[in-house]
Amino acid sequence: MRRVIISGGGTGGHIYPAVTIAEAIKATEPTEILYIGSKQGLENTLIPKLGYEFMTLDVRGLERKLSVHNIVTLCKTAGSLFGAERIIRKFKPHVVIGTGGFVCGPVLLAASLSGIPTLIQEQNVIPGVTNMVLARFVNRIALGYEEAEKRFKQKNKLVVTGNPVRKDILTVSRKDGLAFLGFDPDKFTLVAAGGSRGARSINTAMIPVHEHFKDAGDIQILHITGDHEYDRVTKLLDGVSGQGFYGKGSRIIPYSHHMPEVLAAADLVVYRAGAVGLAELAARGLPSILIPYPYAAEDHQRYNAQAFVMSGAARMILDKLLTGQDLLEEIIHLKEERLLLQKMATAALSIGRSDAAQVIANMALELAAKSKYAKR
User: Are 289 and 315 in contact (CB under 8 A)?
Assistant: First the structure.
């Protein structure tokens, strides 16, 4: 049986690709998987619930420049490298995989120094600081975007795989998605979402959109505000019911645990430009209006969005330029131009790699077969 360590944390953008890769590995070969995360990240609660063996390291984030903060952080967390080495020595993994976030730094570095095969998966066009450092040490680098190749000097290690997408994103039909939401299959479906915490700029810009389409009979809107924004949004709109219904066909909700069904129902999506979300849009071939999060490290969401815009799969409105009127005009234009919308859908599908998780899993298992522990 293969033994695999996977590490990645802090946000869902690092955790969900890790879980998807883990599932692909388990489906390919009998595998014992250990997930290493941080005590502070989302993985600390999510991963144990999914049934994976889970251990933590105490790590802190580094800035992208030389600073006193970095020096202090390195001094405080130097022990995490030794902690990772102890875990690796005890678990004896055949391969170690990192999907980004500060916690995977010491884990992948310790594995590399121990002579264990290593692989990192970079989701964004602009690589994270941890993966940029680790690139010098690991055996393979799986890229979500071809545009990221120029950011790495280690060309012989690079493989463009696309970003892993959960299987259920692909398997839910449009019919089932609409039925789950209780939506009319004959109406145009718009989905707007800004992540689990919500995006205030998107939510504010959606107010004129709801008001314009309130009495329209040919469109239905699902607006996912985020938990912290729901009350504000519903107060700004006059006439939202206790269940979040507004007008003839719109619904406003704080959060959804059923994004496969939500995306299956959509004709057009208003979204941030996180790598995981974009991979899901591409896998389903969904046209989108992207509003990149302006405070993402190195403005990487804007570069992610640009890759979709350049391919013809999306329109982009910068957060600082976003207004309700501009968003409304873009939605009306795409809703009426169905041929353009179809071209955007085709372009989105051309970007997507539905087999990304399996490709990465196969690469990892190939590395595992060469491990010093594989012969024992």
Answer: yes
